[in-house]
Amino acid sequence: MALHFSRNTRVFAVQRNTADNGDNIWELPVLDGFSFSQATNASEITLNEMESDSGSRRARQMFNDSYAPADWSFSTYVRPNTAGHCAEECLWANFVAANSFAADATPADAGVWAAGVSVSSNTHTYDFDESNKAALGTFDLFFVLGGQPDTDGSFATGGDVTIYKIADCVSNEVGIDFDIDGIATLNWSGFGKIITEEASLDATAALGRNTGSSSNFIRNRLTTLNLASDVSGSSKTYALTLTGGSITFSNNITFLTPETLGIVNQPLGHVTGTRSIGGSLTCYLDTASDASRDLFEDLIGATTTITNSFDMAINVGGTGDLSLTLDIPTAHLEIPSHSIEDVISTEINFHALPSSIDGTNEATVIYRG
User: Fold this and answer.
1) Omega of the bond prior to 80 within 30 degrees of 0, cis?
2) What is the CA radius of gyration of the chain?
3) pLDDT confidence tier of residue 5, bands split at 50, 70 and 90
4) What is the per-residue pLDDT across 74-102, written as a single tens digit (0 to 9) for each?
5) What is the mean pLDDT of residues 6-28?
6) By the 8 A CB rule, do 75 and 185 touch?
7) CA 216 to CA 81: how far, in whole Å?
8) What does the alpha-carbon distance between residue 74 and residue 187 come to, in Å, rounded to a whole number?
9) Residue 220: what are its φ and ψ, rounded to 5°?
């Protein structure tokens, strides 16, 4: 009897129904701690009656109503790569738009996305310009347990290999924590329709470069913050050196499921909710000019400012090659809270807002290769 180990698992995303009427497959180098599951929604019928000659019936019955949408989550490193496609490019592209991918024949991995993704000589940019949609891009996730391909590069269930497919997946949330001694990591989670076991998977043409290289990781300790505002009545730039932080992007997706009697209903599809982008930053309480103490004083003194607006850029790994910039042009900052420790520090919660109520410019994600 063969057992499966998480470290011997490979994960692939397949973009279906693409602009060139083909399927494109991406290998996702995930970290330990991935998960996927699916639950059943059930109804419980109980009896509660008074005593009779035959006693009091106290039994219950259970009925399966529907399958809950499948849940999946995993983490990937941020892997900038301008020579080709980033390993996690498929996830970002379908997070920001109802996307499709058209692969060019020469070379095979030089295709383009329909929306939200821009590639130049040294940057990959993901924006939310096309994110005001009721539904976003979907893809299939394949978890290959036992992870060793056949001689032709494909996988087949049997022996030491089991292949699970989650159909019509959608990216719901992605977060990044700025662990000062860590490597830039993205924490992905989302939903899918149904989990099935598949007989095979042809991964010979998987896209995404440098997945086996260690030369394109980003060190969090090099992260910098640019923060500018007119909250005090005049243009002002603050100099904050971070000790940590996090930012979360969420599509607040829900799945629709029919409620027909007599059958176990399967999830129908997803709808998007309010787009939410925000997070928190931590830094020492610094008495230098235009540092964290001045920021606290300006925010708490701005009693006539209903919504403050900060032009904020979080540069994970710095601003040079191998970095990730989160450009947030109109961030709303809450009053910082103080943490009383050996060295007094502050935590600043922020919300990325669009420039108008129907806008889509809360944030832009920029990879530098």
Assistant:
1) no
2) 24
3) confident
4) 999 998 875 667 888 899 999 999 998 87
5) 78
6) yes
7) 7
8) 6
9) -65, -30
What φ, ψ does residue 295 adopt, rounded to 5°? -60, -45
CA distances from 131 to 186, 209, 281, 328 (A): 20, 26, 26, 16
CA dist 33 and 4 (Å) reads 14
- Identity of the residue numbered 43: S
Contacts of 199 (CB under 8 A, 6+ apart): 156, 157, 163
pLDDT at 107: 44
Backbone angles phi, psi at 254, to 5 degrees: -125, 155
Question: DSSP H helical segments within the chain, as ranges?
Answer: 89-96, 292-301
Nearest to 131 by CA among 161, 165, 97: 97
The model scores a pTM over 0.70: yes
φ, ψ of residue 221 to 5 degrees: the values are -65, -20
Per residue in 234-255, pLDDT (tens digit) is 678 998 888 888 999 999 999 9
| Encoded amino acid at 94, one letter | N
Residue 155 clears pLDDT 70, i.e. is over it? yes
- Residue closest to 123 by CA, chosen among 360, 351, 261, 321: 321
Backbone angles phi, psi at 293, to 5 degrees: -65, -45
CB contact at 8 A, 338 and 345: yes
Beta bridge partners of 185: 77
Q: Which residues contact 156 (CB under 8 A, 6 or more apart)?
A: 150, 163, 199, 200, 201
